[in-house]
Amino acid sequence: MLAYAIKRLVQMAIVLWAVSVIVFLMMSFTGDPVFMVIPIDSTDAEIEQARRILGLDRSMPEQYWLFLQNLVQGDFGRSYVFRQPAMDLILERLPATLEIVIVAMLIAAFVAIPLGVYAGANPGKPLSRLIMSGSLVGISLPGFWVGMMLIFLFAVEWRLLPSSGRGDTVEVLGIETSLLTWDGWTHVILPSVTLSLGTLAIILRITRAGMMEVMRQDYIKFARAKGASRKDVLYGHGLRNALIPVVTIFGLQIGDLIAFATITETIFAWPGMGKLLVDSIYRADRPVIVVYLMLVALIFVVINLVVDLVYTAIDPRITVK
Amino acid sequence: MDHQSATAPLLDVRDLRTWFHTFSGTVKAVDGVSFTLAPGEVMGLVGESGGGKSVVGFSLLGLIDPPGRIEGGEILLDGEDIARASEERLRRIRGREIAMIFQDPMTSLNPVKTVGAQMDEMLRLHTDLDEGARKARCVAMLESVGISRAAERLRAYPHQFSGGMRQRVVIAIALLASPRLIVADEPTTALDVTIQSQILKLMRKRIAETGAAMILVTHDLAVVSEMVDKIVVLYCGRVVETGPAREVIANPSHPYTRGLVDSIPNPKHRKPRLAQIPGAVPDIRNLPSGCSFRPRCPRAQARCAEVSPALAPTRGTLSAACHFPILEEVAAAMATTGGERA
């Protein structure tokens, strides 16, 4: 177990280092950020000075080396635009994004898994066909359209929910959250539903495929021959055997939603990380982009580790090595 | 009931018909099967693959899934027709009255649950015992099927057991709720030959101890000959012969049974070539006219193509569905059909 932990940590470090190299190289191709931070009427001398201050006058390897040195000391660079540590900017926005992602994933899991189990256990029934057709719609509809439709219906037509922004927040353990206020929830619900649709459809389809496979197995028939109820057979014996691919996709989707909730956040003017990323790209705010992508890579690596550990909890035949 | 009350059957299956409605036609997997089983009696349900043996077994537990359906007939358990019982009632019968042992122990245990949890489930469903009592019963049952360090093994997962051990676990689970009937569907087919007789002996011993009746579904006459009181031979979903085990094996009256018996290797009468029944089981959606066995039968005559024979007494205690049954008694080894070539 200790050897496994060390191995995984080393792997994570290698992945993050590789990501840092790639991100840094990519950034150097995106144009000179100095023009984004200086006034439009600056003189050549002023431009040169700005370059020096930002460290952009040095060679690429030199810049990277400096970046790495700072990184190890916990300094992730400062935003050109906000003149604040890039990491602080991102961490400030992270809770808002996590909020809608967590709610979205919960919606997806609690809706998709029961529906997928039903559709997988009763493949021929009309309701199953309806569920599957519905899931195709869920996969096909683009998030921005769904978001706008939801705003149109719930905020404009029926005036049930606010159209955009984040509601009242309270601070818990130093983290601002809107999940503990009624107003917060009314703001969370539409972006979360929008965000959840694609994931919901995918998880539903994977759960169904897994259940169809599992329901053919002898141990399902054996469980029925014991006199187990339908519910016990489906959820007690079937679902857990169908869960491995579901957990894999679930993990990938969490990472995906955290990293790229951009479109939904933009539509709902949700002050999360995704909006920060888009703004930073517009402003060529290199340090923020670099830190953002590094953080996303870290999130993915950690989620992968968690997924692997969850495998071992689900299926005793899988062990960590 | 009246005149039979002395030996009131535990199970009385009458004209059972289980059909599968597939796109390519109706498969009459079981088509008019009748038999009775007394308490504690052990019956062999014999036939080639595709003969409908397993379907009979699953029908008894109400485990026929669409497109399959019990089309007709009665399954009387203590006089109660369970062919028409509600799912609710069937759930109380499964495991408690009728338990089932499956063919392949590698796949009949749930891989993600401990052996203990899978055993406990049976007791939770069918008894009022508290947790401690259930555990004690599981340990005792595991020990009784020859698994040592049982308390420890309860926490193990199926993949930590060998095939033979797993089948012992499956048998233990089947016996846990003290059912009165056990349906064993080819319980040794998937096991190594060396393990097969161990498991059979174990089943015979344990089942005799509990006084349960058993239906042993198998394609292997050699297996049943050691274990069962009576034999029902199925061919294409119908009973072709039935009688006391010893008589059916020593002197079968139906040509099909004769063929099955002759294809058992007999070390005392070594033949250069083992007898076999020519041809193969016909497509059950497209059965030949008259007697289904006719195309493979050495005794077939014109009448066999016209009229489907009904089950009727043939000789002694045997009944067979055949127009021209074998009425003379022959020693098993002196094969009559197809065995004397070479």
UniProtKB/TrEMBL annotation, chain A:
<dbReference type="GO" id="GO:0005886">
    <property type="term" value="C:plasma membrane"/>
</dbReference>
<keyword id="KW-1003">Cell membrane</keyword>
<comment type="similarity">
    <text>Belongs to the binding-protein-dependent transport system permease family.</text>
</comment>
<keyword id="KW-1133">Transmembrane helix</keyword>
<feature type="domain" description="ABC transmembrane type-1">
    <location>
        <begin position="94"/>
        <end position="311"/>
    </location>
</feature>
<feature type="transmembrane region" description="Helical">
    <location>
        <begin position="188"/>
        <end position="207"/>
    </location>
</feature>
<keyword id="KW-0812">Transmembrane</keyword>
<feature type="transmembrane region" description="Helical">
    <location>
        <begin position="242"/>
        <end position="269"/>
    </location>
</feature>
<feature type="transmembrane region" description="Helical">
    <location>
        <begin position="96"/>
        <end position="118"/>
    </location>
</feature>
<keyword id="KW-0472">Membrane</keyword>
<dbReference type="Pfam" id="PF00528">
    <property type="entry name" value="BPD_transp_1"/>
</dbReference>
<feature type="transmembrane region" description="Helical">
    <location>
        <begin position="12"/>
        <end position="29"/>
    </location>
</feature>
<keyword id="KW-0813">Transport</keyword>
<dbReference type="InterPro" id="IPR045621">
    <property type="entry name" value="BPD_transp_1_N"/>
</dbReference>
<dbReference type="Pfam" id="PF19300">
    <property type="entry name" value="BPD_transp_1_N"/>
</dbReference>
<dbReference type="InterPro" id="IPR035906">
    <property type="entry name" value="MetI-like_sf"/>
</dbReference>
<protein>
    <submittedName>
        <fullName>ABC transporter permease</fullName>
    </submittedName>
</protein>
<dbReference type="GO" id="GO:0055085">
    <property type="term" value="P:transmembrane transport"/>
</dbReference>
<feature type="transmembrane region" description="Helical">
    <location>
        <begin position="130"/>
        <end position="156"/>
    </location>
</feature>
<dbReference type="InterPro" id="IPR000515">
    <property type="entry name" value="MetI-like"/>
</dbReference>
<feature type="transmembrane region" description="Helical">
    <location>
        <begin position="289"/>
        <end position="311"/>
    </location>
</feature>
TrEMBL record, chain B:
<feature type="domain" description="ABC transporter">
    <location>
        <begin position="11"/>
        <end position="261"/>
    </location>
</feature>
<dbReference type="InterPro" id="IPR013563">
    <property type="entry name" value="Oligopep_ABC_C"/>
</dbReference>
<keyword id="KW-0067">ATP-binding</keyword>
<dbReference type="Pfam" id="PF00005">
    <property type="entry name" value="ABC_tran"/>
</dbReference>
<keyword id="KW-0547">Nucleotide-binding</keyword>
<keyword id="KW-0472">Membrane</keyword>
<dbReference type="GO" id="GO:0016887">
    <property type="term" value="F:ATP hydrolysis activity"/>
</dbReference>
<dbReference type="GO" id="GO:0005524">
    <property type="term" value="F:ATP binding"/>
</dbReference>
<dbReference type="Pfam" id="PF08352">
    <property type="entry name" value="oligo_HPY"/>
</dbReference>
<dbReference type="GO" id="GO:0005886">
    <property type="term" value="C:plasma membrane"/>
</dbReference>
<keyword id="KW-0813">Transport</keyword>
<keyword id="KW-1003">Cell membrane</keyword>
<dbReference type="InterPro" id="IPR050388">
    <property type="entry name" value="ABC_Ni/Peptide_Import"/>
</dbReference>
<dbReference type="InterPro" id="IPR017871">
    <property type="entry name" value="ABC_transporter-like_CS"/>
</dbReference>
<dbReference type="InterPro" id="IPR003439">
    <property type="entry name" value="ABC_transporter-like_ATP-bd"/>
</dbReference>
<dbReference type="InterPro" id="IPR027417">
    <property type="entry name" value="P-loop_NTPase"/>
</dbReference>
<comment type="similarity">
    <text>Belongs to the ABC transporter superfamily.</text>
</comment>
<dbReference type="InterPro" id="IPR003593">
    <property type="entry name" value="AAA+_ATPase"/>
</dbReference>
<protein>
    <submittedName>
        <fullName>ABC transporter ATP-binding protein</fullName>
    </submittedName>
</protein>
<dbReference type="GO" id="GO:0055085">
    <property type="term" value="P:transmembrane transport"/>
</dbReference>
<dbReference type="GO" id="GO:0015833">
    <property type="term" value="P:peptide transport"/>
</dbReference>
